[in-house]
Amino acid sequence: MYFDSTGPANTGETVAIAVREAKERKVSHIIIASNTGKTAEALAAEARKAGYDGRIICVSHVNGFRENGVNELSDENRQRLVEQGVQVYTGSHVLSGAERAISRTFHGAYPVEIIAHSLRMLGSGVKVAVEISVMALDGGLIPHGKPVIGIGGTGGGADTAALLTPGHASAIFETRIHEILCKPR
């Protein structure tokens, strides 16, 4: 499925595609990026409606992403997600993290950022889907060597879903994108 535009307007259809494909392919984990919890709640609602019995993992922005010491996912929204059966993970971004500090300080391009920009050639959501899936694997929230569905977006909401098998960050080139289920053109 190709969307004509990027962004949150595609969230409903993206989560519906992800849940449908997870059920049909017997994929036991869906990982979604959500900085405020709203997109993860949309996925949880769709999963309940469709009778998906797999696990949903929300990967939020790191603390300090927009403002030092602050997480955009409020404690209240985090608790609401947990009450809906969504596991929430917050950790350093695999495709930026400490390397971004180096590039900002020394004004250069560094290997991990090159990986991120290469994935963005397929779309920002593809980069996010890969990144959050690797983060979930490194965090011990998904099994190694099993396909998952990763959901990302472009500047808010969800507009991309991909079937992939992530590698650990220390072996990121073992990551395999099997199929992009939906994305903007």
From TrEMBL:
- Please list the residue ranges annotated as the Pyruvate kinase C-terminal domain: 15-160
Recorded hits in InterPro entries, A to Z, give: DUF1867 (IPR015074), Pyrv_Knase_C (IPR015795), Pyrv_Knase_C_sf (IPR036918)
Its taxonomic placement starts with:
Bacteria, Pseudomonadati, Spirochaetota, Spirochaetia, Spirochaetales
Q: Which SUPFAM superfamilies has this protein been placed in? A: PK C-terminal domain-like
- Name of the featured protein: Pyruvate kinase C-terminal domain-containing protein
